[in-house]
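Let's practice the habit of predicting before peeking. Look at the sequence and jot down your guess about where helices and strands might fall. Then scroll down.
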Amino acid sequence: MATYSVGDLIRHKELKEVVAVEPTATVMEAAEVMAGRGIGAVAIRDARGGIDGIFTERDLLKRVVAARRDPQATRVADVMSPDVRHVAPSTPVEQALHLMVAHGYRHLLVQEGGKPLGLISIRDIMYSFIVPEMAMAPEGRYGHMRSRAEEAVRMLQARSSGG
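Done guessing? Here is the structure:
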């Protein structure tokens, strides 16, 4: 069982800040930021500095490419996922993972008192279970660790089935 929180996870990531774009940014601009930073999602900031939504690789695929929208003319606010799910930094990583799996989220906003502290991905959490001693890369750790990943999945399945 993990004994650390999503706040601990944020502190150990190489990319600690929330990478965000304005709602008026085009999909192309958001994609360029994501590609340039090596990340799979950007937050969409509102006028008050809060987070209005999130734009992910999945949004790009489903709402832009598959819908045949022009990424240079489409505003990110029109294709983002609103209502970003957020957790407090004190949330245990296992609870965050459960929330992500149960609701199909790949990213969670970590915030405290309405202030965004960071964005974590399901990859960040899984890698923290598999190789906890390694520092996080911006979008998780790269490489093939199939046997360790399969072991982690079996462990989680056993826990969820009461085994």
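How did you do? Residues 88 and 113 are 9 Å apart (CA to CA).
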